[in-house]
Amino acid sequence: xxxxxxxxxxxxxxxxxxxxxxxxxxxxxxxxxxxxxxxxxxxxxxxxxxxxxxxxxxxxxxxxxxxxxxxxxxxxxxxxxxxxxxx
Amino acid sequence: xxxxxxxxxxxxxxxxxxxxxxxxxxxxxxxxxxxxxxxxxxxxxxxxxxxxxxxxxxxxxxxxxxxxxxxxxxxxxxxxxxxxxxxxxxxxxxxxxxxxxxxxxxxxxxxxxxxxxxxxxxxxxxxxxxxxxxxxxxxxxxxxxxxxxxxxxxxxxxxxxxxxxxxxxxxxxxxxxxxxxxxxxxxxxxxxxxxxxxxxxxxxxxxxxxxxxxxxxxxxxxxxxxxxxxxxxxxxxxxxxxxxxxxxxxxxxxxxxxxxxxxxxxxxxxxxxxxxxxxxxxxxxxxxxxxxxxxxxxxxxxxxxxxxxxxxxxxxxxxxxxxxxxxxxxxxxxxxxxxxxx
Lengths: 87, 342
Hints:
Chain A is an alpha+beta fold. Chain A contains three helices and four strands, in the order E-H-E-E-H-E-H.
């Protein structure tokens, strides 16, 4: 199953990448692959923005807008103006 | 125990009693009582209070060179580890995630770098094991910075498989995960296990739907089943049927999945019960937005929806759904008034 892909915020700065492979190790949706000591995104649209790759990249080569993916929490935060959380 | 009492809730016993300060033995086999608890907790019993004491535990007879695995202190999580690791010799470091599972606690950061540091220190892990490796569940990675853990504790983080059931094979393969072990699926059985709580949490909507239906029946606008079934059934469609049949709806958007299901439900109700034009219009306007809203909420339970996608759906669909629903409410009251006037 796949979700809306056009709005995904994941980005990889290949210049900074040292090819450690952590991103491919932690991603639960097989977004990354590492060949010749460089990471590449092979399925960016599958990203669910959990932030595991960003958090585990030792050279900050990955950026992604991480957040709660639950509609109820996001609607509530929209109404109350507070930060979204699982409640 | 002092810590547990402060939280004003009882920690569940899963280990044998040992000397204070020394690691406890996890009882590997789940009891009948554990299994009953699991069924109850799936429908909301002790929600957020189903915990075990954060500590270093033993499974089997681990030696100083045995692997250390890290997990959360939600008892359902620890029990899954217990059952999957029966017959193995492991150290199990249970973090204080306030009774939340690994994935959700990682999202909040309670399954995280700082808590690992704290538990490694308080359990005196460096005195107990010779090696300096921690095996974390892969789904804990959003809360943990492996290179920071290395820096502040000296332990190397190795992300294990997504599912604990694969741990045995992972260890046998010298801690190499297959691509399949690293991949989150969201199978029918996964969906079945998270759907009961959707049902329980939407009780207010069930009540509202039932009352709205009973209102129609009470003023003789419709016979009992024709008044109640469409409304209550719509909540059931959104909370249970759409989540279970998720891949059958050919849209990416959860709102569209739900709206499609709601339209099908409305058409079924029109076919099943005798209706005039007003009631048919009410079904087609009132029911789909309700199903769509509930289906959209299931994004919080899935393992593949991004927050950016959810926000996009809110941007695109909030006003259309509100207007659609408002039309349904107006038609509902029109029917009530018509029934009232006789």
